[in-house]
Amino acid sequence: MEQKDILIARMDDLSEKAAKSGCAASRFLTPAEAQAVKAYFTRRRDVNMIFDGGYECAERVRAVFLNPDWGEYERADLFCALKIAIPPQEALGHRDILGAVMALGIDRAAIGDIIENPSAIICLPELSGYIAENLTKAGRAGVRLSPMDLSELPVRTESLSVKTDTVASPRLDAILSTAFGLSRGKASELIETGRVSLNHEVCLHPAKDVGEGAILSVRGVGRAKLLEIGGVSKKGRMFIKVGLYER
Fold this sequence. Notes:
It is built from 7 helices and 15 strands. By secondary structure, the protein is α+β, with helices and mostly antiparallel strands. The chain folds into 3 domains: about 70 residues, Ribosomal Protein S8, Chain: A, domain 1; about 70 residues, Alpha-Beta Plaits (2-Layer Sandwich); about 90 residues, RNA-binding S4 domain (Structural Genomics Hypothetical 15.5 Kd Protein In mrcA-pckA Intergenic Region, Chain A, Roll). The chain has a 6-stranded antiparallel beta sheet with strand order 10-15-14-13-11-12. The chain has a 4-stranded antiparallel beta sheet with strand order 5-6-4-9. The protein has a 3-stranded antiparallel beta sheet with strand order 1-3-2. The mean pLDDT is about 90.
């Protein structure tokens, strides 16, 4: 059974559990996993599904299944935030903190976003005590973790460098070419060799149409978002607006 099929089977189990008991939630999903789950569960009506990462615009989220007759859920029951106190002379990045958490033997799916300003970790509530007690060092720095209210977490914002241009069509190779300043040939090569993801899933088809809001990732190059598809120029080309994520 493929990983995607295993993921969907797990979500089916959770939805059945929610139908009987009111609420059930997955562990943290990657953006690609969330995309796959969302596509599958558009066909289900017996339970409601919500993606939540503990704060607004989280990247890693839990799929929360709710029986419509049951009501709401409390975020604090599903998420815990731990604030990381770092010595002022030290500078820790995402990789340092994640590495320290993984060194505790914790599965990545038990951890949500790792936030930098202020430094914090979102995790499953049942692991918060263990992490706070045992994570005492990240990189070369000694650290101290303490619980923080979810309301104190910052709203995640997208830092984008916006550019506008025209394309012959909204094909993936055309959008990729415009976003990263590549030739159409080079864009097609990157796609066909598996280095390009569309909405967090590898896409091997240069002619695939791209819609507004789509996320394009090129391994080793960067990420972009198709912000807008506008009108048509006098020459029959489509106006587009793309945003490049700062690296």
